[in-house]
Design a protein that fits this description.
It is a single chain. The chain has one domain (10-59). Helix content is 41%, strand content 10%. It has helices at residues 10-27, 53-59, and strands at residues 38-40, 48-50. It has a two-stranded antiparallel ribbon with strand order 1-2.
Amino acid sequence: MAAKQIALGYTARDSVLRGVNILANAVKATLGPRGRNVLIEKTFGAPVVTKDGVTVAKEIE
């Protein structure tokens, strides 16, 4: 695990924007009435199939 870093100004904003875009791209497949199923692979147990965007978002590290 890396040491903590402090980011200010444009660097901080760009880091947050990059994280939000990664999360949005992962969740957007589940949105809407035609949302697709998503397979979530875990390190233990069987994979989980879900259409729930919250579950997908919680599984992102």
